[in-house]
Fold:
Amino acid sequence: MNENTLVIDDKNMMVMKLLHYFITEKSYTPIILQGAENEIWLENLNEDYKIVRIVSAYIHNDEQYQFDVFKTRRIIKKIKSKTLSFNLNTLSIFLDLSSNVQLNPLKNLTSIRVDEDNDILQNEIIKTNFPDLPNKLTFTEKGMQLFVKITNDINAHNREDQKKAEAVFEPKKPVVTLFLIFLNLVCFLLPKLFGIDDWFLETFFTYGPLIRIGQYYRLLTGAFLHANLFHFFFNMYALYIIGSQLENFMGRVKYLIIYLFSCLSASLLSITFSGNGASIGASGAIFGLMGSLLYFGYHYRVYLGNVIRSQIIPLIMINLLFGFIMNGIDNAAHIGGLIGGLLISIAVGVKYKSSKFEQINGVIVTALFTAFLIYMAFVFAA
Structure:
């Protein structure tokens, strides 16, 4: 039989067409599941339907359908844990579902029956959530030519996604992080070498009363000062470990913006609650980097979900807890930096993931947060 006239089963061709649409048009990615036969799971955590299932198995009665729902919910629960998601709206597309089966509405789980292209044209759920899908099911190719085209398109899209992921995660030299560590080192050593340590600290530490009368530079300079060798080495070690990773993920310019804004937000919240106390150290900015890493990890949680859950979140919680139970730790600066780093990351965006709409919202929220901190620091706490 000629390859151009080879007839492919209608149901399998529908599977291929749907895969072509969801992967190449909507950027869903396949989920590898063990034991899931005759069904394909796709995910795009930026869509309203985070999960799409294409089920080709024959479901012949309500009992079998209810078992499918039970099995689906168990798998969704595992995906929630992996991706740090609370709600995963799921769309199940059944290609071989008996007309006797009743599809009742379920929380976060929608099921539709598709026997032919016309079912997609008429389905209200498809019209509302994927209005362009019906137009994407028409191809000029037929038979094996269509199969080859769809396969090639999906493979090309997957290769492009792989290139993007490699560009984000490929190790790069942490130039900005090393420069920041160098600045901290200079600010730590030079005053000691020239015998002006006390003067240097008094001139540049973060101190609310002096900042309020116009010495605004202290909002940033205090983050480059350290009280002793242990304080310096502890913060620089954390900066190198966390900063190197974030600079690699976010890029140098965005990373520097995140670091400096985290310094600013940490200092503003610090002087709100410190009264006449002084504050120094890079820990507020480092908490900002952890907040940014959380946001980055949220977008790339398919890759980093386990790391965020098992390492980053516990690290943040433990350090905040120490700040509450131990004296001499400026936890207000830590919280201010953490929130500031998270919000400014929304504004600058994550490469290949953040939309312009999301970034605009991030700019607005960051501006409101900054205005709130300024009011608290210069009006409320004055």
